[in-house]
């Protein structure tokens, strides 16, 4: 059976740099640079400017990924778009991106809603479609605009300081003979923890979907039980990394580079320590991006390329955990 590989990656971070000092200056938020750095490792994150959308960022990231893959837009046959913060609830961002990148022809576009695991879910779908010979070249993009939906008061400070906006994309295509491509993947969800990190409103489960009362109560902002998320993230990221390695018949020592989701530097340090992966074999971007959810893994990939940490045929372990709860891992050859 043929295999799929990543041919190129791209990323985009919006221009508004928000430091911890900027957040500290918002009195109602009641936070500090010291608290944020100590608990999360984050120093700065980026926010979109007024009028700038997820699809705007996706377009930049995709153009860069195409350039790095040395492909033209004409060769792309399918779009997979992962985000938990779509520009609009109807239709999904995939259609808007199709119009931006391919205004003169139609292209299938699939929207993926798996939060921080969204990119790895999307990667697994892209791999399957290429293996099944349905398509040759697929554009996979993850974007997130968090900043327009955060609670900048003390009530929301635990969530607000963590997140940043951004986009990351890759182009996938058939791997040449002898290249291992995407080797194995493992996907999980456990909905009994859905309410430990969620955004309740607007909700089609309620009529009306939103009201003035709900807004007054701040129930249109994301809510999180940070300690529960932290504990599960460490356990599940270690577990699923071992699972995907076992599926591929590989061991931790075979991994050349580990790209974990970026939710909290302390989570990643604990995961790496439990897996026995040295710091030199891991890339972290959280210090300067915050948590960019579905955009995180491709942003890390771009950073690994920039740092010269990725060589042809290197074994790459991607692992993520997020709301749902969902968690996932992919092992691939670069
Ligand atoms: C959010 C997180 C950083 C909080 O760190 P923590 O050490 O667990 O802190 P706690 O939630 O126990 O809160 C400790 C104190 O800090 C306070 N606090 C919370 N957020 C704060 C902030 N931004 N600034 C200042 N103080 C804050 C709390 O109110 C609490 O105060 P109290 O002791 O007076 O009640 C941590 O739980 C975490 O990273 N969880 C996982 C988050 C995550 O991964 N989310 C995305 C999933 S992909």
Describe this protein's structure.
The chain is an alpha/beta fold and 334 residues long. The protein has 11 helices and 13 strands. The chain has helices spanning 20-24, 33-40, 54-69, 93-101, 118-131, 157-160, 212-216, 226-248, 265-275, 286-289, 296-306; strands at 4-12, 16-19, 44-47, 78-82, 108-112, 138-144, 166-174, 182-189, 197-198, 223-224, 257-260, 315-322, 326-333. Helix 3 (54-69) packs across helix 4 and helix 8 runs parallel beside helix 9 (265-275). The model has no long low-confidence stretch (mean pLDDT 98). Coenzyme A is lined by residues 31, 35, 39-40, 116, 157-158, 161-162, 197, 224, 226-227, 229-230, 233, 263-264, 291, 321-322.
Summarize the structure.
The protein has 334 residues and is an alpha/beta fold. The chain has eleven helices and 13 strands.
Q: Count the strands?
A: 13
Provide the structure class.
alpha/beta
Mean pLDDT: 98
Helix percentage range: 25-40%
Bound ligand species? coenzyme A
Number of helices: 11
Oligomer state of the chains in this structure: single chain
Order of helices and strands: EEHHEHEHEHEHEEEHEHEHHHEE
Poorly predicted ranges: none
Overall form: globular
Binned strand content: 15-25%
> How are the strands ordered across the major sheet?
1-7-6-4-5
Evaluate the radius of gyration. Answer: 19 Å
Ends apart, CA distance between termini? 19 Å
Report the sheet with the most strands, covering strand number, pairing sense and barrel closure.
Answer: 5 strands, mixed
């Amino acid at each position: 059976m043929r295999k799929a590989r990543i041919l190129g990656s791209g990323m985009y971070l919006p221009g508004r740099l928000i430091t911890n000092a900027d957040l500290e200056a918002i009195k109602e938020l009641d936070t500090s640079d010291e608290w944020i750095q100590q608990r999360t490792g984050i120093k700065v994150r980026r926010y979109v400017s007024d009028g700038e959308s997820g699809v705007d960022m996706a377009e930049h990231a995709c153009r860069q990924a195409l350039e790095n893959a040395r492909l033209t837009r004409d060769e792309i046959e399918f779009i997979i778009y992962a985000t938990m913060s779509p520009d609009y609830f109807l239709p999904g961002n995939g259609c808007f991106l199709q119009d931006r990148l391919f205004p003169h022809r139609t292209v299938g576009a699939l929207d993926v809603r798996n939060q921080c695991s969204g990119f790895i879910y999307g990667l697994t779908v892209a791999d399957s479609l290429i293996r099944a010979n349905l398509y040759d070249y697929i554009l996979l993009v993850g974007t997130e605009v968090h900043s327009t939906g955060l609670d900048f008061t003390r009530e929301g400070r635990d969530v607000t300081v963590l997140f940043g906006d951004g986009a990351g994309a890759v182009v996938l295509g058939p791997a040449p003979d002898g290249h291992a491509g995407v080797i194995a993947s493992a996907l999980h969800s456990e909905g009994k923890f859905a309410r430990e990190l969620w955004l309740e409103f607007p909700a089609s489960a309620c009529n009306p979907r939103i009201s003035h009362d709900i807004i007054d109560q701040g129930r249109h902002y994301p809510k999180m039980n940070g300690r529960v998320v932290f504990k599960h993230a460490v356990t599940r990221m270690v577990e699923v990394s071992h699972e995907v390695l076992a599926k591929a018949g590989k061991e931790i020592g075979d991994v050349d580079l580990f790209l974990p989701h970026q939710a909290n530097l302390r989570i990643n340090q604990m995961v790496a320590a439990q897996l026995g992966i040295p710091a030199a074999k891991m890339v972290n971007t959280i210090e300067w991006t915050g948590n960019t959810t579905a955009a995180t893994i491709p942003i890390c990939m771009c950073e690994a390329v920039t740092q010269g940490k990725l060589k042809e045929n290197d074994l790459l372990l991607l692992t993520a955990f997020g709301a749902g709860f969902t968690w996932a891992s992919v092992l691939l050859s670069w």
